[in-house]
Amino acid sequence: MKLNNHAINRVLIVGGTHGNELTGVYLVKLFQQYPELIRRYTFESLTFLANPQAITAGRRYIDQDLNRCFLQQDLEDITLSNYEDLLAKNINYLYGQNGKYPVDFVVDLHSTTSNMGITIILDNDQPFNLQLAAYLISLHPEIKIYNSGKSGRAENGLRSRAKFGMGIEVGAVAQGVLNADLFLKTQTIVYATLDYLELYNQNKLPAFSHSFTVYRYMEKIDYPRNEQGEITAMIHPQIQFKDYQALNPGDPIFLTFDGQTITYAGESSTYPIFVNEAAYYEQRTAMCLTQKHQIKI
Amino acid sequence: MKLNNHAINRVLIVGGTHGNELTGVYLVKLFQQYPELIRRYTFESLTFLANPQAITAGRRYIDQDLNRCFLQQDLEDITLSNYEDLLAKNINYLYGQNGKYPVDFVVDLHSTTSNMGITIILDNDQPFNLQLAAYLISLHPEIKIYNSGKSGRAENGLRSRAKFGMGIEVGAVAQGVLNADLFLKTQTIVYATLDYLELYNQNKLPAFSHSFTVYRYMEKIDYPRNEQGEITAMIHPQIQFKDYQALNPGDPIFLTFDGQTITYAGESSTYPIFVNEAAYYEQRTAMCLTQKHQIKI
Q1: Does domain B218-290 have CATH number 1.20.120.740?
Q2: B106: distance to nearest CA of chain A, Å?
């Protein structure tokens, strides 16, 4: 069998980048218990629980969000030494492109309190990633493809250390909770991704449509706040759980605690995602606004 | 106006007994900003954020669950001095029956990741509490009445310090998240409760049906676990979000990570609540089983 000239040799499946997102934590534990589930012929599959102390504590992180710690300049900055700073440096030593076990492809498993269903997160427009997305959507038309490139994750996220990679973001599920349905769906997408990499390596990819929708990150917007920085409004009931649905100028977006509706003041339609994600309150993000693009590759 | 001989003189509305249950936290802040919302003629309305450090940290508690710290013997034990131990003692000094501002009625605001809709929690069968429940259900037939008496909350919960009281438990909502719809419904039930107390004090209660359903706590059941104490299964998809629905012997209850269905082995039908509550994983509770009773008073 002649392998692809650009074969993927090592794949890393990561759970617990955020310690209270249990889907990934328990999927990785399952794969560690039954490695045959993720074994393929043409590449090595590794698993990794990224933030062990946060997992034990049942919290997103100990000192700071690990998935913001991978800027090249931060990895090189010896003065940065809190728990997640050190984790990030260690992950880079292990799996980065100049590390001990350089990773060609990383699958990073996340969950969200937003109603994002099964979302594939790509951090860039590389044809390799887009082809994978097209393949997955041909098998599972219900999944959504989100390009996070402009959000910063392409530079500071864990995935930035691998040659290629993607996130799987599933919701709505509360922090600290396992939803069996979303667990099973995530598992299915992981297997489909490994199958893709196997077929790619073997030059055996089947024909599939290369036309699909991508939601591209544009900006994040914060909750209304008072002078003390406290939020003064909630996500409006009309857009709660309405991720990926059009938000048009004049549509309700927030409801103040004293009952006033605030409408969206943008100039054109947008497609919000991460609507009411628990972890984003402190990051001053009520939702991320995306633009919808039709992609042909 | 002649007041009821057993008039309620002081009412305490509590939020943030669990710091990451935001509905109560922000309702109490709203009432503190607009005290006229909870002002009535015949009693004094106080508000209180019970666990300030946990609220700031966005966590359920700092050292231990505050809503388990109110056993009389623990309040009297001078050796108990972690953060929540001290909070509990202080709350008892302030609002307990021998405290500075003894409270006749407490409304304790909670939320849950379980699909419990709007649940009124009563800690005992006192006629005063049951009449209030009957009144609320006559106005809002969709609410559920849960008697937690046998769970321990009647002895160790914050509400045990007041003469009378109830919890409002709303869900499903993730920890650290505000759901506007559930916020508004909780607010409505708080107002209806204050209205009831006002009518009660004035001997002006209208006629309403005194027949309704109560779900009574029987026992809690844990997740399947391995020898290391780690969970080996999830809530089965068929009962996820199915709080208050009959679980019969032989029905699916858990799904193991490797795909095996575990069925309910009880001998008779039960009505699970707190199904997949995030905070209960560490308390070794997958759900609480209740019995359904028709009450006439």
Answers
A1: no
A2: 22
Cβ contacts (< 8 Å) between A237 and chain B: which residues?
180-181, 184
- Using the beta-carbon criterion (under 8 Å), do B281 and A176 form an inter-chain contact? yes
What pTM does this model have?
A: 0.95
Helix, strand or coil, per DSSP, at residue B37: helix
Given phi > 0 = left and psi -120 to 50 = alpha, else beta, which region is B34? Answer: beta
Residue B6 has pLDDT above 90, yes or no: no
Q: Which fold has domain A10-209?
A: Aminopeptidase (3.40.630)
pLDDT in tens, B175-207: 999 999 999 999 999 999 999 999 999 999 988
Distance, in Å, from the CA atom of A244 to the CA atom of B164, rounded to the nearest integer, reads 46
Per-residue pLDDT tens digits for A237-290: 999 999 999 999 999 999 999 999 999 999 999 999 999 999 999 999 999 999
**pLDDT at position A47:** 98
CB contact under 8 A, A257 and B29: yes
Burial of B95 per CB tally in 10 Å (0-12, 13-18, 19+):
buried
Q: Which two tokens stand for residue A292?
A: 């919808």
Q: Please tell me the CATH code under which domain A218-289 is placed.
A: 2.20.25.160
Q: Which of A176, A183, A258 sits opposite B175 (nearest CB)?
A: A176
pLDDT at B4: 82
Q: Give the minimum alpha-carbon distance from B58 to chain A in angstroms, rounded to a whole number.
A: 9
Facing residue for B176 by CB, picked from A34, A234, A281: A281
* Domain boundary assignment for chain A: 10-209, 218-289
List of chain B residues whose C-beta atoms are within 8 Å of the C-beta of residue A258: 30, 33-34
Asked if A163 contacts A104 with a C-beta cutoff of 8 angstroms, the reply is yes
The answer to whether the CB of A20 falls within 8 A of the CB of A60 is: yes
